Automatic annotation (TrEMBL):
Biased composition (Basic residues): 138-157
Protein known as: Type I-E CRISPR-associated endoribonuclease Cas2
Annotated Pfam families: Cas_Cas2CT1978
CDD domains in the cross-refs: Cas2_I-E
Residue ranges, compositional bias (Basic and acidic residues): 89-104
Record InterPro entries: CRISPR-assoc_prot_Cas2_sub
Transmembrane segments: none
Chain intervals for the UniProt region annotation (Disordered): 89-157
Length: 157
C-alpha cells in the first residue's frame, strides 16, 4: 500500500500520479505498486515537485509496518531506537544537526557520550537544548537534575 500527499505541486505531477494511484482527496493518492514502481514514482515526484512538498508512506516489513519519505517538508523522519518518528524541522534543530555532524567529523567522543563537548559548544548560548530530540519539558527536568547532581558533587547542597 502506498500513500502520497502533495502540497503546492504542478498539475503535471498530479496527472502523472493518477496513472499509478487513485486520488482519494485533493492531492492525496493511494494504491498498490511494486517496489520498483514506488522508487521510480518517488524519483519522478522529487524531480517534478518544484518548490512544493511531498510525503510518501508505504507498507514495509519492520516493527511499525510502514516507512516514509519526505521532500521539502517541515517534518523530517528521525530514527529513534529503531522506530521512525516525525520531527518538525526548525532553525534550532538544524543547528543541532550541524553541531552533531561537526562532532562526528571531529573524531572520538568523551567517555560520557559527548556531553562535555556539547556543553562546550553551546557555552554562552542558554537557549540551546541540552540534547537533540528532547522535548522542552524533558530538557528542563534533565537540566534541573543535572544541576542538582553537580551541586551535590561539589558539596554546595
Amino acid at each position: 500500500m502506498i500513500v502520497v500527499v502533495l502540497s503546492v505541486t504542478p498539475e503535471k505531477l498530479r496527472g502523472e500520479l493518477t496513472r499509478w494511484l487513485l486520488e482519494i482527496s485533493a492531492s492525496v493518492y493511494v494504491g498498490h505498486a511494486s517496489t520498483r514502481v514506488r522508487e521510480r514514482l518517488w524519483l519522478r515526484i522529487v524531480e517534478d515537485v518544484g518548490s512544493g512538498r511531498a510525503l510518501m508512506v508505504w507498507s514495509a516489513r519492520n516493527e511499525q509496518r510502514l516507512a516514509f519519505r519526505v521532500h521539502n517538508h517541515a517534518w523530517e523522519p528521525v530514527d529513534v531506537d529503531g522506530v521512525t518518528l516525525m520531527r518538525r524541522r526548525t532553525a534550532e534543530s538544524d543547528r543541532i544537526r550541524q553541531a552533531k555532524e561537526r562532532r562526528a567529523a571531529a573524531g572520538p567522543r568523551s567517555p560520557d557520550g559527548g556531553v562535555v563537548e556539547l556543553e562546550e559548544e553551546r557555552a554562552g548560548d542558554a537557549s540551546s537544548p541540552r540534547r537533540a530530540g528532547w522535548s522542552r519539558a524533558s530538557q528542563r527536568r534533565r537540566g534541573s537534575a543535572v544541576e542538582q547532581r553537580r551541586r551535590r558533587q561539589s558539596g554546595q547542597d
